[in-house]
Amino acid sequence: MATKTYLPDKKMIEKNRKWHLIDAKDQVLGRMASRIATLLMGKNKPYYTPNFDCGDIVVVTNTDHIKLTGNKSEEKFYFSHSGYAKGAKTTSFKDMMAKDSRKVVYLAVRKMLDENRLRDKRLRKLKLYKDDKVEPNIALNFKK
After folding, report:
1. Rounded distance between C-alpha atoms, residue 50 and residue 29, angstroms
2. How far apart are CA 14 and CA 34, in angstroms?
3. CA–CA dist 72, 102 (Å, integer)
4. Among the CATH numbers 3.30.70.270, 3.40.1110.10, 3.30.310.10, 3.90.1180.10, which is that of 14-68+100-132?
5. Is there a contact between 72 and 37 (Cβ–Cβ < 8 Å)?
6. For the chain, first and last CA: distance in Å?
7. Residue 60 main-chain phi, psi, to 5 deg
8. Distance between alpha carbon 7 and the CA centroid of its chain, in Å?
9. Residue extents of the structural domains in the chain
10. How far apart are CA 80 and CA 12, in angstroms?
11. What is the pLDDT of residues 27-78, one digit of tens each?
């Protein structure tokens, strides 16, 4: 007896795509990032397929007010390299939060997603805001 496999079509995926609003105020960064990554991938849906982008759109507000557990706010560093000799830079968590807190959340979610061709497409569905003020065209999607 042959087993049938089910593949969702793009029309059904687009029709069932939802908008999620997450308030990051006083939430732990890693736990929030893993929940956002699950929503972006679509793993919470019954028709999840790894090679399709069947995830939802996620809007995160209040990224200035995230927190870390333990002593990580003093010990956490971000590493970047320009590609040139002696081009390595490390930036502390506090400096990143002071410069742009949206980048901290973006990098946390990016590291939670799989490294494949769909990662950039999924990250485009992530909207980040420093405070409660959301763009008017995005706010229309939540008034339903």
Report:
1. 25
2. 23
3. 18
4. 3.90.1180.10
5. no
6. 45
7. -115, 125
8. 25
9. 14-68+100-132
10. 40
11. 999 999 999 999 999 999 988 989 999 999 999 999 999 999 999 999 999 9
